[in-house]
Amino acid sequence: MNAVPDVPQIALMGLDASEVSALVSRVGEPAYRAQQILDAVYRQRLDSIGEITTLPQPLRASLNQKRVVVGMPAIERKFVSLDGTVRYLIGFPDGQSVETVWMPEGDGGEAGDGSEAGDATEEAAKNWDRATICVSSQVGCAVDCQFCLTAQLGVKRNLTAGEIVGQVCAVLKDQKVSPPQDRINLVFMGMGEPFLNYDNFMKAVLLLVQEVGIAESRMTVSTAGIVPRIHDFGLEQIRPKLAISLNASNDAQREKLMPLNRKWDLEKLLAAARDFPLRNRERITFEYVLLHGVNDSVGDAENVVELLRGLKAKVNLIALNPGPGIEFSTPGEGQVHAFQQVLMRAGIPAFVRRPRGRDIYAACGQLKRTVEIATAPVR
Ligand code: SAH
Is residue 118 predicted with pLDDT exceeding 60? Predict the structure, then answer.
């Protein structure tokens, strides 16, 4: 290669319309080139400058020479589940990687609309009428939830906005689908804590809405409970729906499971939720991972009812997805059902999330860049 190694690459993926316009005018090109570039990156999802045939050849050569690249991340590995879920290992130029999960059909819980959550259709992938992509926001995670495999990695670094959007573009390209014709939902529930990478996450949201063409109403972000950012998020003009990982029914319990509860306890967390400006018909989703004998009793469910009193809420119940080094076990179906019944009888919509891709380590809390899935338990 004859590229000059010490000149850093400039990735187009992650630049917004004004940044692309600035680049175009810097190289002395007419303004309409900006739209051609945005189309090529975000809508055609091309891999290289050379493929952008809407641009004249001399301009492509000059962009190459200036080390401008598209910045589409590489799909390094792909694991396909029996239920149609696909777990992608997506790599970046510095050698870091994250996981992104494709779920044909979604299950309503992930889609965030709740309407069909938990309906136990066992149909495999082919004739999906909507799909959900679960997107990562950081390499690893710093929050250290005791039941989550991603926590075992620690946090390596934040993803850039381009790397967050890039995951979506890489998966759309691989699946040969295009929003808005294809109904695509996004959940920011992969590796990492989106609200600890807030600015890059929000920039990625804007690009996904404005350039990739996925409506914000089709997006849900989940936070472990970074209280100040919940407040900031409420002020955003364009934002996904909000989900909060509750996971416990009292402070003592939550502190053991999620150490961040020492900083932002249930009182602070639920105060932020109560202050959160909801739109018409919007609800906050609370996720609750059920751990056998730890937080799954009827008494716990009754406490949750009290905690959520007065909130426009719905609850997604997730029976623990097991993994190596996780010291908890999965409750039985009866226990999950009893917990759900307590919430429902109190008028709180509660859905049991069907695990997706457990056989390939793609389910909630299982994203740890596991490559040796032949040795993983198939459940
Ligand atoms: N960091 C953010 C985004 C990740 S969302 C957050 O915590 O909300 C991932 C969801 O999976 C969270 O609700 C989390 O509580 C849940 N989860 C983590 N580990 C799990 C496991 N082993 N089984 C089931 N759900 C799990």
Answer: no
Ligand 1 contacts (CB < 6 A) are 143, 145, 147-148, 189, 193, 222-224, 245, 247, 287, 289, 318, 320-321, 364-365
What pLDDT does 5 receive? Answer: 60
Return mean pLDDT, the chain.
Answer: 92
Q: What is the 3-state secondary structure (H, E, C) of the chain?
A: CCCCCCCCCEECCCCCHHHHHHHHHHCCCCCHHHHHHHHHHHHCCCCCHHHCCCCCHHHHHHHHHCCEECCCCEEEEEEECCCCCEEEEEECCCCCEEEEEEEECCCCCCCCCCCCCCCCCCCCCCCCCCEEEECCCEEECCCCCCCCCHHHHCEEEECCHHHHHHHHHHHHHHHCCCCCCCCEEEEECCCCCHHHCHHHHHHHHHHHHHHHCCCHHHEEEEECCCHHHHHHHHCCCCCCEEEEECCCCCHHHHHHHCHHHHCCCHHHHHHHHHHCCCCCCCCEEEEEEECCCCCCCHHHHHHHHHHCCCCCEEEEEEECCCCCCCCCCCCCHHHHHHHHHHHHHCCCCEEECCCCCHHHCCCCCCCCCCCCHHHCCCC
What is the per-residue pLDDT across 6-49, written as a single tens digit (0 to 9) for each? 778 999 999 999 999 999 999 999 999 999 999 999 999 999 99
Mark whether 141 is an active-site residue. Answer: no
Q: Indicate if 364 belongs to the active site.
A: yes
Nearest protein CA to atom 20 of ligand 1, as residue: 365
Mean pLDDT score, 274-284:
97
Instruction: For residue 172, report the distance from its CA to the centre of ligand 1, in Å.
Output: 24
Q: Is the pLDDT of residue 127 over 70?
A: no
What's the pLDDT tens digit per position in 286-296? 999 999 999 99
The whole-model pTM stands at 0.92
